[in-house]
Each structure stands twice: as C-alpha cells, then as structure tokens.
Amino acid sequence: VTRRMHLLSDPTRLRLLFALERGEACVQQLADQLGLVHRNVSHGLNLLYREGLLARHREGTMIVYSLADYSVCRLIAQATESVTAQLEELSELIST
What we know:
Blueprint: H1 2-8, H2 11-21, E1 25-26, H3 27-34, H4 38-50, E2 54-59, E3 62-67, H5 71-95
Antiparallel strand pairs: 1-3, 2-3
Helix pairs in contact: 3-4
C-alpha cells in the first residue's frame, strides 16, 4: 500500500494516469499533450507499468501505453473528494 501511495504522490505520474484515462498513447504523444520532457514521461510510465497500473504494446517503433488497473482512478477520485470536503469545511470555518 505504501509503495502504491508513494507512486501516486508524484504530480507527473498523476497527470499521466489522467491522460491515459482518455485512451492509450505513446510517450511522445503524452509529452506533447502534457507539455513535459520525453525522458520524464518515459520514466513515469515505466514506474506505473512496473507497478501493474499500465499495460503496453508495441506499434511499429512506438510503445503504446494504456490503463491496466482502473481501480487506481477510483482511488485518486476518493482522495480528491476527501481533500475537497476538507477544503470546503475549512472555507466554512473561515467564513463564519
């Protein structure tokens, strides 16, 4: 669990997961889409792949990545909802 949470604590890896939620893509497509350096995208994708969150296949000279474990999206959504609720609660306290 701690390894998975640590993996998801990186903003670049989260952005990659969100992008792949919309469909499969290769490293260069993701780098261009997210405005990131190719090397950083490749590294993040490899980490997510080794953890079993992504699948990949070869198309010619490209490696194409896709989500393999959609439960990670639910986990991120739950964490986002928790943070949002806490921020709303703090906002209400400040407003009163």
